[in-house]
Structure formats: C-alpha cells, structure tokens
Design goal:
The complex is a heterodimer of chains A (552) and B (170).
Chain A lengths: L5 H22 L5 H9 L3 E3 L4 E5 L5 E3 H14 L3 E4 L5 E3 L7 H10 L16 E2 L14 H11 L14 E4 L13 E7 L5 E7 L11 E8 L3 H15 L10 H8 L1 H15 L8 H8 L15 H9 L1 H10 E3 L5 E6 L10 E3 H14 L3 E4 L5 E7 L3 H10 L14 E2 L14 H10 L3 H7 L4 E4 L13 E8 L2 E8 L11 E2 L4 E2 L3 H15 L6 H8 L2 H7 L5
Parallel strand pairs in A: 6-7, 7-8, 16-17, 17-18
Antiparallel strand pairs in A: 1-2, 2-5, 3-14, 4-5, 4-13, 8-9, 9-10, 11-12, 12-15, 14-15, 18-19, 19-20, 19-21
Chain B lengths: L1 E5 L2 E5 L2 E2 L17 E4 H6 L1 H6 L4 E5 L17 E6 L6 H12 L5 E6 L3 H9 L4 E2 L31 H8 L1
Parallel strand pairs in B: 3-4, 4-5, 5-6, 6-7, 7-8
Antiparallel strand pairs in B: 1-2, 1-8
The chains are: A alpha+beta (552), B alpha/beta (170).
Amino acid sequence: MYRYDEVDHRIVRERVEQFRDQTQRFLAGQLSEDEFRPLRLMNGLYVQRHAPMLRVAIPYGHLASHQLRKLAHIARQYDKSYAHLTTRQNIQFNWPELARVPDILAELAEVEMHAIQTSGNCVRNTTTDAFAGVAQDELLDPRAYCEIIRQWSTLHPEFAFLPRKFKIAVSGSVEDRAATQVHDIGLHVVRNEAGEVGFKVIVGGGLGRTPIVGEVVKSFLPTRHLLTYLDAVLRVYNRFGRRDNKYKARIKILVKAMTVEAFAAKVEDEWLHLKDGPSTLRDVDVAHYASFFIDPDYEQLSANPPEFSSKLAEEPAFARWVERNTRLHKRAGYRSVVLSLKKTGVPPGDISAEQMDAAADWADRFGYGELRVAHEQNLILPDVRESDLYEVWQLAKSQGFATPNIGLLTDIICCPGGDFCSLANARSIPVAEAIQTRFEDLDYLFDLGDIDCNFSGCMNACGHHHIGNIGILGVDKNGEEWYQITLGGSQGSHTTIGKVIGPSFAQADVPLAFEKIMTVYLEQRAAGERFIETVRRIGLDPFKERVYAKHH
Amino acid sequence: MQSIIKDGQIVQDGWQILRADAEGQYPAVAPDVDVIVPLSQWLADKASWLARSGKTAVWLAPADDPQLLAADLAALPLVAVDFPAFTDGRGYSLGRLLRERYSYAGELRALGDVWVDLLHYLWQVGFNAFEIKDGKAIDTALSGYDTFTERYQSTHREPVPLFRRRVTSL
C-alpha cells in the first residue's frame, strides 16, 4: 500500500492548518457563510440535518489496519461510536462538532489520511475495484495509476473550482467492478496489440438527475500520457462546462451538448499542447508508484485444504457464507472475505467502532494488515487463507459481520437518506430495512440469487439507483415520501440505466411491490437465469402488470 | 491610487478598470489615465486606445478566448483576468494558457472576488498581481503565498512535477 514520504505528510499537515485557519475565521465572522461553504466542502465538511457531516477519503478504498483503528478512535472520541461507508469507498462521520473538525483532521494526518476533496466542485477521491491486486480476473493492477491520479488531483491549482464535482474511476479487471461507465472519467487499464500498457478513456458517464452511460473518447492512451491527457480533459471541462445551472454542470452535459466526437476533438487539440510536456510519466515514475503495490509474501498453498473442505461439507451455514461472502483470489489457497455491512436492522454501510477495531485485528492476524472498502459499502479482508476461513466466519458472526448476503437482494446499496441528509426527499434506511425484513428467509433469498438493489433518497443518486437491477428512488409528493421503482439497471461491463416501472409507491407498499416483482421472476426465469437476465429477456411489462394489477 | 499585491509586496497602483454599467454602457475614459479595458472594447478599437497618452491594458472575462489577444501580448503592459465569483475557476485555466501557451511574460493580475485563500493557486498558475476584494484584508493576504510549501503538479512556477523530482532524488 502507498506510504507517505515527508512531502506527502507536509502537504496534508499544511492543508489541516489552512482549514483550521479557515474554520476559525468563519467562527469569528471574518468569512461569510457563502465564502466558507465552498471551502469547507472542499474539505469534506457538509452541514446536515442534525450536525456537520465529515467525509474522510479512503483513496481507492485501501485501508491499513492502523488507519481503521484510528477511524474507530475518531468515531468514539468525536462522534457516536459509528461511521458510514459510502458508495465511493469513503467513510463519513455524522455527528462531529464543527469546532473540533480541525482536530479530527490532525488526527487523521497522523495516519496518512485526510478529507481533501471529498466534496465540493473539484476532483474527488479516485475509486477502483475493491479487489484490485488480488482479483482472480485481474488483467493489470490499477493501483499505481490510482495513486498517481490521486496525487495529480490533490490540490491541483488549476482545477480547484470546477463547474461541478468530478469523479474518476479506474478498472483493471475483466469484470468492471468500479462502475467506470457512470463516472466523469472512467479508465480501463488495457494492453494494446503491441503489448503496451495504456488506458481506454471513457468520459461523460454519471447518475444524478440525468443518468448517462459514458462514451469512449480514446480507445488507447499510452500510460506515459495519462496526466497530460487528464489535464486536457479537465481544462476543456473547466473552461467550457456550464456554470449557470448546477443541474447541467457535470461534464456529461458538456459531452452531450458538443457530441462525443466534437468533445474528443477539442480535448485532442488541447492535449497536443500538453503532450510530452513535464507531466509525462517515465517508466521509472510508474515503477516508483508500482513498488508500493507489490504482493505480500504469500505462502505456497493448495486450494481447498482438507480442513476447509470438511467444514464446508459439515456446516451448510458456513458453506453458504463462503459461497456469498468470499471471492476467489489470484493465489491458490487464499480468498478475499467480504464482511457484510448489510445486516437487517442496521443502516446499510454503517459500521461501529467495535467492528472497526475487530476487523483491523483480523486484517493483522489473518492477512497482511490491509483492508478494502467496496463501493457496495462493505468491508473486505483481501488475503485470507482458506484454512482460516472457518475461524474468520465465527469471528465475523460474533461481530454481526457475517450476514451471507453479498450480491443478494438484501445487500442493498443505500444512501443515508432523509434521516441524515438535508438533500434527501425521503428516508431510505427504514425502507431498506423493511425490504431486508421481507426477504430475511435465507433459502428464499439464495433462491433469488444475484440481484443488485440500489436505493437513493433523492435524484442526486448517491445510492446509484439507476444501475441497480432493481432500484428505488425516494421522491417527494406534496410533502410526503414516495418511492419509485426502476428495473433493468446494471453496473459493470454492460452498464445500463434502469427504467421506471410506473407510479411511485407509499412507503408501506414497497416491500409488497418487491415481492410481486420477485414472484414474476421466479415464475418466468429460465434455468440458471439471473434476475437481470430475465428482466432483459421478458422486458418490463410482465412486472408492471403484476405490480399494478387491480385487486379482485 | 489603491493598494494591490504585486510580486509578493503591497504596492500602490494607479490602474483604473473599465467596466460596463448596469445598462451595458461604458463610461468615458480620460485620455491620460492608465486603464484596463475589457477584451471586447480592446478588439473593437485598438488604435484609439493606443492613441491616448495614458497606458492601456486588457482584462479577460472568464468566458473570453485568450487566443484573441495572442498577437497583442508582447506589447501589452498588463493583462488582467476577472473573477466575478471566487468559485468560478475558469480564470485559472486562462492564467496558465496566457503564460504557457501564449508565453505572456508581463504582469498578470487577478481582479474581482480575490482574497487570501485563493492566492496560492492563483500564483501557481501564473498570476503575479492581485487586487484584493474590497472588505478583505490586504496585509494578511500576503500569507496566502506560503499556504503550501510543495505541490504535486506541474505548474507555471514549478514546471517539473513532484513525481519527477521524487524519482530523480531517489
């Protein structure tokens, strides 16, 4: 994992001091609310319904055990002993006191963490595959490039005040697990026919009010040109993106307005001036960053050791957990374990200080001291020996981490919703819980199989509802909370925006609507067909007919 | 006369800025004052501006195309960029373009919603003079230069990005 040198430390410390000074001037009345707002947002600080909310960056979802312990400490010292993992691999504290935020930032700086650009109209945390570096289907490890992009985007003097937020995601595996097609820029690390490494560059994807799947603006960008090309894209966006209407200010609107061809040509023209300039990456530069992401000393193991296989055979509950909550590892005899934060009764993505400490201990004891945050809002132990899985399962159960629902209907991606967020039209947490309760029967849940269920409390779409196989959007109707259901969305290599099935539902009726949709699926599915495949094959009509049928 | 920051010092400055009034009309400019005129006014009648005894400089609005000024840059005593709101970051790109693409070497001044918290970035992209917004302290604004002692990117002030200096120094 990347380690700070003296310069990285200094930059973060100086940012903490800058923010401390800004906060003090605001509290002393020397900065107006309008002046302070963009400055605090750029440091991850929102003012929410009950208190400020501080979003801390977890660069591309990588976390060391000692960092997670620090987050647990902050949760206890400055908050209500829990925090919330976000859909962009960050972590949020919901109850800090404004005056103490600089102290939290100083504590974070001690462990090489910060809140820089976790909000505001600037380049946000770069995200990637939560299984980067360990995934069995990985083609190229994206992490060195993620770190290079992180540094390039951090406090970039030219791009501090963009028209709107800007999100970059990188993927290096066969299956895109980083939602690259719904980011402002999506990068796929690829090899060309000559065997050179480079990037496929996708621009203009995004969710929010206007969900759009991004389009390829460059099919192969050699690695060395990464930063000059990003500078060119950002400069075109900074200069020509709309600033008159915040709902039309994302780069996707600019790309659509110009057409992707004209946009790509404009970027190309800008890039010709920057190409081969000082920001060109040399092999030694890439090698320097890649050196932080070399494999740990994995043991030579064989897959499926007898103690593991026998437990699988003896205990169906363990087998079920292994099936859903572990992923194949590139090294035989290892697995990545997904610790589920989707237990019924707990808001999706919420994690207690006690759970953080426990997971940090397991990362040290069973792995190499590293963890990952997935954009699906779960925590991952990337390197666990199969022979240790039984013990890890029992420990995970003891901490409420072992709900065997990863990738199933109750593994709901969910924003904090109206309980916390002042933007939300509707609460998401109680509705997510009602759905989880309705589908609590594990046999039923397993039979339904892989289903991405995504839930947003408003059209800002933090819960990525558009790309859920089944999505829920909270809407406001004359001051009441209603819920719109979409079907057919998907993330990954075949990203699709879901379609609304019809009029929205009252809160109490959402679980029943879900049940009817699932009944149609079970009746209609062909052998081995997943929910999304059935939806694609039969279309929305059979679902609409059932859900909106008049009672007889 | 007003105080501005230029090259790291607080100095007295006599430039006046020509801005349109609420009806979009431009007030008359006395022939002997040094004036910074909008790009549109400059392009409309360069010869008249140059015929005055006072000096003439040009300011760009965020949406202006700096290329339109490229041929005149070598002769201009000053170029300014207006920041109508500090959250409008287009001027940062204009600064870099003027310096790096069009090789402008003279005074580059930031106008408008400019104050201490923005100085560091503005300096990095090429501005060397700052008219601090009314009501904001100018004496403490000087500290804005030093907010950060290092940065990751290639900038006008330090074209070699940190990653290159890092690997060279290993």
